[in-house]
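This week, look over our next protein:
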Amino acid sequence: MEPSPLELPADTVQRIVSQLRCHPTDERVALRLDEEDKLRHFREYFYIPKVQDLPPIDLSLVNKDENAIYFLGNSLGLQPKMVKTYLEEELDKWAKMGAYGHEVGKRPWITGDESITGLMTDIVGANEKEIALMNGLTVNLHLLLLSFFKPTPKRYKILLEAKAFPSDHYAVESQLQLHGLNVEKSMRIIKPREGEETLRMEDILEVIEKEGDSIAVILFSGVHFYTGQLFNIPAITKAGQAKGCFVGFDLAHAVGNVELHLHDWGVDFACWCSYKYLNSGAGGLAGAFVHEKHVHTIKPALVGWFGHELNTRFKMDNKLQLIPGANGFRISNPPILLVCSLHASLEIFNQATVKALRRKSILLTGYLEYMIKHYYNKDKAESKKPIVNIITPPHIEERGCQLTLTFSAPVKYVFQELEKRGVVCDKREPNGIRVAPVPLYNSFHDVYKFVSLLISILDAAETKNS
């Protein structure tokens, strides 16, 4: 899906090892990688939590003044420092001029969402008119499915991956029920092969080819929340549309993480949240994409005031003049305080660029993988030595920044010991710990420190069980 960079992460590490004449696991390698990182100054644009402020911390194990190792940007991104400034601007405007704030300032409240949509175009690879910033992710998914899922007696299924994020699963289930369809017959779930964690592309394409005539909508994640697998969006889109299906994506874990070209790939529709890699804060303003090819054929099933053309919206004559495309799907006025926090983050992306961030991300995650495999290579594992498996695909074009790890040691123990030492990641059922080094604010030294802590925890677990 993406061309590999000229230098693979392992080769970069080896190059630096040669220059420094040191071991690959030497701390100096991480420090040199940080020196060479042209994006390292963006870390200063964010608040990094101090370990002393983290609830599970054991102060006897840490230096309380140190920064946490924050590897949970795949769940909630860190706060950009400009958020407070932008919020205060709007609160000040509200305090001083009340309703006049609807029409003045750099974020007039009536068009607050539109004032930042342009900053999203490069992140998702779409035209401004194909994007709407509104609601929460699952609300947007429902609105899109109401328009794109029009089942017929012959074409009535929705295809999705196994263990899709629960909210997507519930949304699909309820859409099927809304149409009076049998969920078991109409919800086509693709599972990995026996004994495998991730889906094979050939298996996805085979199901589409064989069953495509009965599938109305294909709905996949861009990046799977648990395994971290990045799906081949253009290939799935092309295969689905060749069989007459609409193809849409939940990009919650892909947006701000990998390069996206929704318009050029011809994706029919997509939605995403903004509080993970896009750092807009818990419950931040979500987004939706509707390809411009549908501008005259796909209409919103549910409409509201803010889907009405702005130039006649305030005539109040109750004669809807629907905005063509994605913006017609908007129902209510934009929540300006949520616009502020997203604005602060999108400006940083605009400066850094997704292309450069993705390049760093490949190296950052590759360095993490390199270090884990060096210490816990299955091939040379002793029978008693703890095992660390990476279930995320090894190919860089099949993953974003997240690696999901499983352990021979009890996962609950490993997770709690990491938390006590100021590592912020998460444990997800059934047995994974998700670790996401985010290129905007994580460093190579963060990775080095994480691996050092993981080794000491696993060594302690081994001693405990021997």
